[in-house]
Design a protein that fits this description.
Elements (H helix, E strand, L loop, with lengths): L3 E6 L15 H12 L2 E7 L3 H11 L3 E3 L2 H8 L3 E4 L6 H11 L3 E4 L7 H14 L2 E4 L7 H11 L6 E8 L6 H11 L5 E9 L5 E2 L2 E2 L3 E8 L4 E7 L7 E7 L2 E6 L5 E5 L6 E2 L11 H15 L7 H20 L3 E2 L8 H8 L9
Parallel strand pairs: 1-2, 1-4, 2-3, 4-5, 5-6, 7-12
Antiparallel strand pairs: 7-13, 8-11, 8-17, 9-10, 11-12, 13-14, 14-15, 15-16
Helix pairs in contact: 1-8, 3-4, 4-5, 5-9, 7-9
Bound molecules: nicotinamide-adenine-dinucleotide.
């Protein structure tokens, strides 16, 4: 069986451990590659040398670097995991693609703006590099079973998808990715959005809205609504899939899934072992990335799929800037939210 040479950029420290600056997602990636039995963990790069050393020791990685470009030049890697904060995803992915790797698995969100996200996908396509993003929830049962029931007639014909989460960008990228997953990757047609940004908020260095609304329509007529931040309903529902003859709820409380369908008396709870966070989702995601590379097929986590959710995020910001609906495909390149913060068109006005 082919053995792939794997490298990591930005390794962090495990979540809540001493010196952690985040979740240390590279540790989960490493466990996933090791589990496939098809990968050799060759090298890792982190500007904090101690982080690289600790990661290498824990995961049996052969060599450490503080300069990721040197690692890319020296190691003849097949697969690179990019696990840095979002402002570094695009430059690092482009450098890895240009170094000749076969596959890049990058953490979410894709990039800082729509232009960067498209460029990453374009350059990787041009060079035949399989670019994927870690929207690992696609491999968890509550979401997979909800999709199955949305498609097999359990709730009639799917008409609408609703959801809520903390923000449009850092968390919303997962939720919007699930919306496209449920609706068979059908592209969106238009987006109408609004954001309020009175509270100073950031995730992984990137400013977030304090509250947001994103209404959009898929090309097959299914409607969607995502609410974010303050004001989202505290009723335990993460996603609601509404059909002509029923309703599916993906919920935070175990067992996370219930369905109301015509002809049945009340809610039917679907027993399944996974939670909305895991436990094993990243390993399953990496298994798919490696298998897709070996089989020459597209992974469920492909950049092509990730771009659909990413476009809706940036279109929501753009809709707020335009005070109007944004018809897709979107032609602007920037992140309208960041641009409005820079020009002062959006101001952090209060702490409430
Ligand atoms: N998929 C998920 O569910 C999930 C969960 C949490 C975080 N994330 C995403 O993962 C990404 C990384 O988050 P994290 O919590 O693992 O971060 P982290 O802070 O734990 O680790 C980032 C590492 O990158 C290193 N770094 C910074 N600049 C670098 C450079 N120029 N070269 C090499 N290394 C550099 C830092 O020193 C640090 O060790 C983010 O985009 C975040 O949104 C995804």
């Amino acid at each position: 069986m082919t053995q792939y040479r794997v490298g990591f950029i930005g390794v962090g420290r495990p979540w809540r451990s001493e010196g952690a600056t985040g979740f240390g997602m590279a540790y989960e990636h490493a466990a996933g590659y090791a589990k496939t039995g098809r990968c050799e963990l060759m090298a890792c790069a982190d500007i904090v040398e101690d982080n690289a050393r600790a990661f290498a020791e824990k995961n049996g990685v052969a060599k450490t670097y503080t300069d990721y470009e040197k690692m890319l030049a020296d190691e003849e890697l097949d697969i690179v995991s990019v696990c840095t904060w979002p402002h570094l995803h695009a430059p690092m992915t482009l450098a890895a693609a240009q170094s000749g790797v076969k596959a890049i698995h990058c953490e979410k969100p894709m990039a800082m703006n729509w232009g960067e996200a498209r460029e990453m996908a374009r350059v990787c396509d041009e060079r035949g590099v399989k670019l994927t993003f870690n929207h690992q929830r696609r491999f968890l049962q509550p979401f997979q079973l909800a999709k199955k029931m949305a498609r097999d007639g359990t709730i009639g014909e799917l008409q609408r998808i609703e959801g809520n989460c903390g923000d449009m960008y850092d968390w919303g990228t997962h939720w919007l990715d699930m919306f496209f997953f449920y609706n068979n990757e059908t592209p969106a047609e238009w987006v109408l959005g609004q954001i309020d940004s009175r509270r100073e908020r950031k995730a992984f260095g990137v400013p977030l809205e304090s509250q947001g609304l994103c209404q959009f329509r898929f090309q097959n007529g299914v409607g969607a609504l995502l609410e974010t931040g303050q004001g989202t309903p505290p009723d335990g529902v993460a996603h609601r899939l509404i059909g002509t003859d029923g309703l599916i709820e993906v919920r935070w409380d175990q067992p996370c899934l219930r369905v109301l369908s015509a002809g049945e008396k009340g809610w039917r709870v679907i027993d399944q072992p996974d939670h909305l966070h895991g436990p094993d989702a990243v390993a399953r995601a990496i298994a798919d990335v490696v298998d897709a590379l070996a089989a020459g097929r597209e992974s469920m986590l492909s950049a092509h799929n990730a771009l659909r959710a990413t476009e809706v995020i940036f279109a929501t910001y753009e809709s707020s800037r335009r005070r109007g609906r944004v018809d897709l495909p979107m032609t602007i390149d920037d992140n309208a939210f960041l641009s409005m913060l820079e020009t002062g068109d959006i101001r952090r006005v209060a702490t409430a």
